[in-house]
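Appendix C reproduces, verbatim, an entry submitted by the partner laboratory led by Prof. M.T., so that reviewers can inspect both the input and the predicted structure.
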Amino acid sequence: MIEAQPFDVVELLYPIPAEDLPAGIQGTLVHQYDSNTFETEFINELGETIALCPLKRKQFIVVWQASTEQAVPVSEQVAQVVALLPQPAGTEVLNYARYLSTKSAIAI
């Protein structure tokens, strides 16, 4: 799994109703409390802070890394999600990826 670091851009995997944050919203890690907890800032289209809240590593995936100044490839984003799933769900994802791979190979 990608190591999260301050100033990385992350995407929520689950909504946070108390902060009115939907799953999929992106925010920036602004402080690291420990290896598993990060203060995260979410802003609106005007650049105004709409929420500042601590997140556990299992609540988000990294989609852009500040250290490389590059987006995380989709394959690595998927790997982050799969790494957080229980084994049976991870197997389902693998089976679906195999299905899509076979379907794509037939179309070529």
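The mean pLDDT is 94. Additional entries are available on request from the coordinating office.
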